[in-house]
Design brief:
Elements lengths: L2 H11 L1 H11 L11 E2 L1 H7 L5 E5 L3 H6 L6 E2 L30 H10 L7 E5 L10 H8 L5 E4 L3 H7 L25 E2 L1 H5 L7 E5 L3 H5 L16 E2 L16 H11 L6 E5 L6 H10 L5 E4 L2 H5 L12
Parallel strand pairs: 1-5, 2-3, 2-4, 4-5, 6-10, 7-8, 7-9, 9-10
Helix pairs in contact: 1-10, 6-11
């Protein structure tokens, strides 16, 4: 048994006690010590406040079939550039402007048209964390500098109905707003920044893909397999409860980070294949007080389809 797996099992044995301590210490935190990852019961309480807006990021068909009352629908696919085959089209998944910088105005327009306001306390729900129709929109809102964001932990509708709450098929739309973003400087990295930091001892690359992808056994459809030299692997599924698909409690994630030597004084660069799985870690690290977290949005989709990028592992 791997050391980190044994450690996870030991900590899980004490979860009832640690969760109770965390809840009593800070009633604003969700079960498991999280602030961003919330339970269905907490969502129900938040929705009683007039300033709370729930955003369903599943497909339009899924939304129409039944959603949390009062939620609007902004499918996760609309928050990203269209996917392309490796080597074709744009590799960045965050929309870019003509200068190849993250297109903040496009996001402002998108959110304004949907009626999202800066004053809204936002609850994102859909698929589980680490999915485009899950936590990716919450991560993007974090980058855009939105003040209060929560994510319904687990598979949203299942959590909601499992807690005894009803769904509705009545759609909701809002009047357009004037959303103004205040993006976190340097949150989105490009290839030049990655290559320029490979030998920086203050920078740690965190690979959230599978072991097979990391070592290069599974290239997917990429030209090359492997990982960024020196990258530490923390598979996003290692942060999920396989039964509920909820993000594991903060104590478990913190122990995993500690075991890997990922510290708060480092600049942590998250990447995967398409900057999707990283969203679970991005939100968790924020809650745990890691302030220097950035996302390489083109990820291995770009890095592994070039012939001029140094890699480690089996090509």
């Amino acid at each position: 048994m791997k050391t980190h797996t044994f450690l996870k099992l030991v900590i899980l044995a004490f979860l009832p006690m640690t969760a109770a301590v965390a809840a009593s210490a800070d009633e604003g935190n969700s079960a498991g010590g999280w602030k961003t990852y919330v339970t269905a019961s907490q969502v129900a309480e938040l929705l009683e406040k007039p300033n709370t807006l729930a955003i369903d990021v599943r497909s339009a068909d899924e939304y129409a079939a039944g959603h949390i009352p009062g939620a609007i629908n902004l499918p996760g696919s609309r928050w990203r550039t269209p996917k392309a085959k490796p080597g074709k089209g744009e590799s960045q998944y965050i929309f870019r402007d003509s200068d190849e910088k993250p297109d903040v105005q496009k996001y402002e327009s998108f959110l304004s048209q949907a009626g999202v306001k800066n004053s809204h306390d936002i609850i994102v729900y859909g698929n589980h964390a680490g999915k485009t129709d899950g936590s990716v929109p919450a991560m993007i809102l974090e980058w855009l500098g939105h003040e209060n964001i929560a994510f319904l932990n687990g598979i949203g509708v299942d959590q909601w109905t499992g807690a005894g709450f009803n769904l509705t098929d009545q759609p909701r739309t809002l009047e357009p707003s004037s959303y103004v973003a205040s993006p976190i400087p340097g949150y989105i990295w490009n290839l030049g920044q990655v290559l320029g930091s490979l030998d920086d001892p203050n920078v740690v690359f965190v690979d959230t893909r599978t072991e097979a992808e990391y070592v290069g056994e599974n290239k997917r459809d990429n030209a090359r397999g492997g990982h960024i030299p020196g990258a530490i692997r923390f598979d996003y599924v290692d942060g999920l409860d396989p039964d509920t698909m909820e993000v594991l409690p903060a104590e478990v994630i913190q122990a995993e980070l500690d075991e890997r030597g990922i510290t708060r004084d480092q600049t942590i660069v998250l990447y995967c294949q398409t900057s999707t799985r990283v969203s679970l870690h991005a939100l968790a690290l924020k809650d745990l007080g890691y302030d220097n977290v950035v996302v390489y949005d083109a990820s291995w989709f770009e890095y592994g389809n070039r012939d001029d990028t140094p890699i480690s592992g089996i090509e």
